[in-house]
Amino acid sequence: MTPQFLRRVDSPIGQIELESDGSTITSLAMERNGHLPHEALPENSNAVLDIAAVQLAEYFAGERHVFDLPVTMTGTPFQKAIWQGISALRWGEYASYGELGLATGRPTAGRAVGGAVGANPIPIIVPCHRVLASNGRITGYSGGNGIPTKVWLLEHEGIEAVL
Fold this sequence. Notes:
Blueprint: E1 5-9, E2 16-20, E3 25-30, H1 47-60, H2 77-87, E4 95-96, H3 97-103, H4 110-118, E5 131-132, H5 147-156
Parallel strand pairs: 4-5
Antiparallel strand pairs: 1-2, 2-3
Helix pairs in contact: 2-4, 3-4
């Protein structure tokens, strides 16, 4: 589907592509193997994407620890509950998949939690990189170039994790 508004920004983890419905952020994609989902389309920015670009630059510079952006996330009620739990994690904090499942009333739903985390349409802003296994291990990452991208984001925030 063609995004209504689109903007790209450079970052230390490669280019980032932001989408908007006109008033909220609806998607953030990180460059994967040198490509972006809508790289063939021209940019068509708007005010919310311009603000997001500034806030992402501040985040990557270590100057911003909390994003203040309107987002619209489309998903199941369970996914939305997990994304809300992820959104509560602050700079330098992390949670396990099990903790997120427990917080949503499904303590044995680790696999479903992992699926919801991986389906997050707005990574970094909704910081799914802050979710680790219960033993502090990195078990995967669907954004950017996978685990190396997650390692960079965690180290940027001073979060120690185990590969």
